[in-house]
Specification:
Layout lengths: L1 E5 L5 H5 L4 H17 L6 E5 L3 H11 L5 E5 L12 H8 L4 E5 L3
Parallel strand pairs: 1-2, 3-4
């Protein structure tokens, strides 16, 4: 199992200036928390691109997934980079995709 947390909780200014350190640190914490909560020992966690869909694409280049589980906030609560990413993933990837929307 692979958990990828995109570094998407970032302002437009920070994104434009490549100041992603805080977003990457937060994403690493989220990925580790999810990996620790998973019911398996065979799991890896990593930080992905700030664009959630690109983070999935990047992960699929190195991890042969059978299925994708995309977890997002509702679009009204999502960051500007995360809005619509669940729906985009449903239409873009040839793997089975489950999109879970969670409250913050």
């Amino acid at each position: 199992m692979l958990v990828v947390a995109p570094a998407s909780d970032i302002s437009r200014l920070d994104w434009l200036t490549n100041d992603e350190d805080d977003a990457r640190s937060d994403a690493a914490e989220r990925a580790d928390e999810l990996a620790d909560a998973a019911p398996t020992e065979d799991i890896e966690s990593r930080v992905g691109d700030s664009d959630p869909v690109k983070a999935i694409e990047d992960a699929l280049r190195t991890f042969a997934a059978d299925e994708l589980i995309v977890v997002t906030l509702p679009d009204e609560d999502a960051s500007w980079l995360e809005k619509g990413s669940g729906e985009t993933a449903l239409g873009r990837f040839s793997l089975p995709v489950t999109h879970l929307v969670v409250e913050s």
